[in-house]
Structure prediction request, 787 residues.
Amino acid sequence: MNMHPQSDPQVLTTRDGTPLKVSLAKALRREKLRSLALIAPLLIFILVTFAAPIADMLLRSVENGIVENTLPKTVNALSGWDVTSSQLPGEPVYKALYEDLKVATAEKTHTRLGSRLNYEASGMSSLFRKTGRRIKRMDEAGPFAEQFIDIDKDWGDLATWRLLKRYSPKYTPGYFLNAADAQLTADGIAMKPENERIYLLLFARTLFLSLTITLCCLLLGYPIAFLLASLPLRSANLLMILVLLPFWTSLLVRTSAWKVLLQQEGVINDFLVWIGVIGDASRLVMINNKTGTIIAMTHILLPFMILPLFSVMKTISPSYVRAAKSLGATDWTAFWRVYFPQTVPGIGAGAILVFILAIGYYITPELVGGTDGIFISNRIAYHISSSLNWGLAAALGVILLGAVLLLFYVYDKIVGIDNVKLG
Amino acid sequence: MTESRGASVRYENVQKSYDGETLVVKNLNLDIPPGEFLTMLGPSGSGKTTCLMMLAGFEPATHGEIFLNDKPINNVPPHKRGIGMVFQNYALFPHMSVAENLAFPLQVRGMGKAEQEEKVTRALEMVELGSFGSRRPAQLSGGQQQRVAVARALVFEPELVLMDEPLGALDKQLREQMQYEIKHIHENIGVSIVYVTHDQTEALTMSDRVAVFNDGIIQQLSEPDQLYENPQNSFVAQFIGENNKLSGTVVAVDGDTCDVKLDDGTMLKAEAVNIGAVGSRTTISLRPERVEFDTHESMDNLIPGEIREMIYLGDHIRVRMKVAGNDEFIVKVRNRGEKRDLRAGQTVEIGWAAGDCKALDPVA
Prediction:
């Protein structure tokens, strides 16, 4: 607090001798408490329903307690085993595994562990299921190593044990590596084989398509916003309703409408064939690919570009352009040198808004994107609801969030966030 | 800045309508010789700004032709007219520095960098803002912005500069100072200036000639002193300076003077400026400072009046009186230091010369 910049070191006091700052703080405390009490309900609501779930979800991207929780003794016994050795772990480890699995089978948690480890190496799920079914028939006296290898020879494979050892810590970078098409191998971090890579491509495509959509929105929205800002009030209001109309229509309806328009037997193709621009055999493929995603999302996000642009343009007095013309500038120079620079804050606001909405978009790419027009968010949704690999979904989400924040930072450095004007 | 003569402007039968139903400018004919400072003065909605915008090229004339240096310019776009303009709110480009603002008209004319810099420096010095080139307009005070706007309108050496109420946003003191500065710049450079304002003091202070606009028509076009001394009609008399109105009927006309019978029966002698035949209605216009309390027999008009109110204003005293049924009659008495026995409620005799009161067109 530098409310009282003082050149002399003497502390100002009130008449009864309390330091001025103390009594000021006391005087303001009640007010502060009251305003805090006013926002408390909303704050708590947001913390409980928004911040906390997100934090929990993000934690899942590194959390890996399942191995240690299910096989506590094994993990403990394995701590003495060297991952790089070419020897299988000793009998005590197998004994610990037997004891752990007996408990786990009774609690039916071994299948969950199997599915978890299956993310890292296929075959793990069936290995744990098979072992779980046979564990009751094992001889409690041992020797356990032979019995396990007898159940499934994977227990005699070094790779299995290395995997277990690698994923026994409470936290793992495994999900993040997975999300970046890499994996943890015995030799450290390595890229996955070429044919298994998918996420980097998806991230790149999401970024590229979002940028394309932002650009399309800008190119289409700028003239409309300009028109809105320069038309007389009556016509401007009518045009504004047309701009806002999509907001009042269901997103699903709008996207489905694009399906009707864009498909190969759709309205646009029929029309083009009818006027003879294209042959019946060579109908354009405009849906279930990138084109479909770009067209439909540009349409849906256009108002988010137009509105900030409009609100900025509305404040630009027409006398600037007139002044430029009176000073000898042609229409184009007056626009480019005088009008356009003043709309940059609106462009910034609109572009950020559209880009951030686009990068996390889900429904539209899902419906019209086909296979090469889907976004990273579609993959996240798949892992949340179908494959149930929440850790990977969380890791993908964290990367997406990080990418947006990074871009935000870069934007702030280049354009300056205080240059953004929403109204 | 080199000595350049100004441009001449001529409006010929110019009419302007925005909606096709009413004329905002009704048949304007106006000749502005080179180097003149002409002010278009009038209340808002009188058509003065529209006339300026037509000259600048931002509004097309509905009918008629405007000539710049005897060349018709109706079909010349604004940026080719080469007319400097100062806008009401200056319209300094907020994203450019002061120097960039000044360099803009030079840049678009393709002038070399060195020449640009030289002209910008000279223009900034002319308005005494030499060290402000790198600032943004928002960092300047209102008066400084105003000067930059003037400098920008002059930096490309136009022959004609238009000013649309450029001092409207300044406070009184600054406004007066800027009036003199603009006047001096005009005298030094010799450009023609067309200046639009609704402030009569501004118009009287700065102009060579003033065109008083009302209702889309020039009511009077003359030099400032003529405007005040010899208003041609009641609107001008009312709009310029302070004025007492007395309504009556013309009873006799004798050359330049006429006899007017006021509505309460009082007879006055007045200068016949703008009246109809004997028997028609007229409004007498009389400046408050021309009325005397020290009456003598030789005065043309001597009538009694009742003092209603005395307001002390330092250099003069305003006396509100009831004269011939009009109780808004104002008399200004110069403060010469002598004690004068005037009190509210008194009835005294006042007088003035026939030449000081003008018989003009009647006001409803």
